[in-house]
Design brief:
With 248 residues, the chain is α+β, with helices and mostly antiparallel strands. The chain is 40% helix and 18% strand. It has a 5-stranded antiparallel beta sheet with strand order 1-5-4-3-2.
């Protein structure tokens, strides 16, 4: 992937101290727990006679919500515009933001690893789910798909850094109305001849731009730049997969 494309050049590492962020998350969680305990305390007007209670096991930590296989399924038989949107606005945008939700905070707080280690683990897991469901088999032998996988993982890493810096800090920074995320918007689509005459393959050329919600937080705002992408798709009759890729 061209590292100067708007999907990549707009990203910058957050300068927020990760230790401070972890402490902030822990403080928020502790405050929530304290409020919950206060709400459960008996009032002076309630009969305080103890009642037998059942011993229960501890509640398991909420399941982490990372990349899902369904996010990367491109149905076969779509027209060029719908296929382009499914790939770019659907699958690639989902990959960019995979894990950017409240379950990430729970995972960070439950981990004994460093903040950066947790983010790196999440990015690797998301990458694995994406390539298994979006790319053709033996994709590792296609240099352009390796570049796409690495570039998308880099965007996911940067997005998660920005998300954790902005998602839970509104009390301290009112400008952070919501956590930082990005999206890719298809602007124009053209199906072109791939030259092999195989009805199960197709080539789509499209223009797109990358948008952010930086107007609702301290993350970077949309640059307005556009890029062109060419995608080769292969169909098995049920699902299309990316067989080759170019962006410029």
């Amino acid at each position: 992937m061209d590292m100067n494309s708007p999907a990549i050049s707009m990203m910058h590492r957050s300068g927020h101290d990760r230790t401070h962020r972890r402490a902030g998350l822990a403080t928020a969680a502790a405050a929530t727990a304290a409020l919950a305990l206060a709400a459960c305390a008996p009032s002076n007007n309630v009969d305080a006679t103890p009642e037998p209670v059942e011993t229960s096991t501890s509640t398991p930590a909420p399941e982490f919500e990372g990349a899902s296989p369904e996010d990367f399924i491109i149905p076969a038989g779509l027209d060029a515009e719908a296929a382009a949107e499914a790939v770019v606005e659907g699958a690639l945008t989902s990959w960019d933001n995979a894990g950017a939700n409240d379950s990430l905070r729970d995972r960070i707080l439950a981990s004994d690893e460093s903040f950066d280690t947790v983010i790196t683990e999440v990015v690797a897991e998301n990458r694995q789910v994406a390539v298994e469901n979006l790319f053709v088999e033996n994709w590792e032998s296609v240099p352009s798909l390796v570049d796409l996988a690495n570039g998308s993982a880099d965007i996911n890493y940067q997005n998660l850094q920005w998300f954790t810096s902005t998602a839970w800090s509104q009390d301290e920074k009112p400008e952070n109305i919501e956590g930082f995320k990005t999206s890719r918007d298809v602007l124009a689509v053209q199906e072109i001849d791939d030259g092999d005459g195989n009805p199960n393959t197709r080539r789509i050329k499209l223009d797109y731009t990358t948008l952010t919600n930086g107007d609702k937080n301290e993350g970077p705002e949309s640059s307005g730049e556009t890029a062109t992408m060419i995608i080769d798709l292969v169909s098995d009759g049920k699902q299309d997969r990316i067989a080759d890729f170019e962006v410029f």
